[in-house]
Amino acid sequence: MSEKSSIFNSPKLYSFDYFAACTIGGLVACGPTHASVTPLDLVKCRRQVDASLYKSNLDGWRQIVRNEGLSKVFTGFGATFIGYSFQGAFKYGGYEYFKHQYSHLVSPETAHNYRTGIFLAASASAEFVADLFLCPWEAIKVRQQTALPPPFARNVFDAYSKMVKAEGFASLYKGITPLWCRQIPYTMCKFTSFERIVESIYARLPKPKSEMSNLAQIGVSFTGGYLAGILCAVVSHPADVMVSKINNERQKGESMGHAMSRIYGKIGFPGLWNGLAVRILMIGTLTSFQWLIYDSFKAAIGLPTTG
């Protein structure tokens, strides 16, 4: 590493600059990618709230364009971009930080032998923090997307103002528990499966990772990211449905437990899997491109790719 390393110029591994660079990389990887699939997310969320609303995803987009206008397929774009930029920053930067810290609590040999446990603990810790920054924007996004008849607000800031004025700032965190239930298992699966999948891929390639080009390594990251994304989508989907329902249907003064019990009683176990196919498509694509962007960013500033 250069003695004059900085955040954007070969930052020294595990230095403040290194973790800051990973934080920026996570922001760049997550905000734009999540926002880009807003049309998929819009129909998914509406179908989760009311399964009879559209006959299919395609029918959903057709009805939205016909009844609301073409631009409305991006309802929730602003809140998604802001929320997942924050979340990505703290998720990726936090993961690198916690992984390093937890690895140094034990000997190098123990850390290697039990690396799966370290990946799980680090990703859970990072996501717990990241969701505190995501939750308000996720609540705004869900309200914008599921308010029927639309529109709920002119834009993300108008929606923020309306929700806080009507229900108080605390209303933006009423979905934090189901969000943690969705996001923490999702991220544990995302990072741990990615690490082990790319490790398995590298073990089967004719050349060691150290002898491969950055482009080849990033290709491995993309492949591992897509496979990890499929697993993530399945693991986190029931909680994703519940987040949408809670943010849309939880009554004022109602406890989280009572709200979840009431909603589950109405939709049942099958209802927790509404929209799974589109979520697999969305999350698989998102995860692969996030790892592609994140590791491309790391390689561009002189850092090793993940895995």
TrEMBL record:
Protein's UniProt name: LALA0S08e03026g1_1
Record key words, sorted: Membrane, Mitochondrion, Mitochondrion inner membrane, Repeat, Transmembrane, Transmembrane helix, Transport
InterPro entries given in the database record: MCP_dom_sf (IPR023395), MCP_transmembrane (IPR018108), SLC25A3/Pic2/Mir1-like (IPR044677)
Topological category with respect to the lipid bilayer: Multi-pass membrane protein
Solcar repeat boundaries on the chain: 17-101, 114-200, 216-300
GO MF annotation, one: copper ion transmembrane transporter activity
Keyword Transmembrane part of the UniProt annotation: yes
Annotated localization: Mitochondrion inner membrane
Organism: Lachancea lanzarotensis
